Amino acid sequence: MNIIDESGILALSTRLQRLSEQLRKDGALFYKSYGIDFEPKWFPVIYTLYHKEVLSVVEIANEIGYTHPSTISLLKELEKQKLIRSKKDKIDERKRLLQLTAKGQELIEQMKPVWDVMKQALSEIADNQNNLLQAINEAENKIVHQSFLQRALQLKSEEKQ
């Protein structure tokens, strides 16, 4: 066990990042094993547009839960790869509407069988005594009601009293 593992809850963010990086790395290698050149970081946008077809930048950011700048960065990469395209909204010229290109749609069709296998493998990983996915949902719901920062500041102010 290393010092990060030993630090327990204090390293929660670090350990979640470590887990995320391992899953992304393995995911990229698994896509590659099917001959698919795909970065797992693109998944939230591609998957969202596959289900919602046409969305604005703000709508995509809200759907995937990323900040506006992070979303813009992903969208630029995907446009460069010609997996998505944007057009101006006819009602609001300032708004960009995004959708999958034909190349993006073809990619989805290639990835569907891969996703089925990934779901099985990830289910095996998450299906443990504490059910990882359920625990993540519960933690995210708590953060929606009161963020980590709000909780820490509250504890700090209570400590001073």
TrEMBL record:
PROSITE patterns: HTH_MARR_2
Domain of life: Bacteria
SMART domains reported for this sequence: HTH_MARR (SM00347)
Xref: Pfam families: MarR_2
Any Gene Ontology biological process: response to stress
Gene3D superfamilies: Winged helix-like DNA-binding domain superfamily/Winged helix DNA-binding domain
SUPFAM superfamilies: Winged helix' DNA-binding domain
Any one GO molecular function term: DNA-binding transcription factor activity
Protein name: MarR family transcriptional regulator
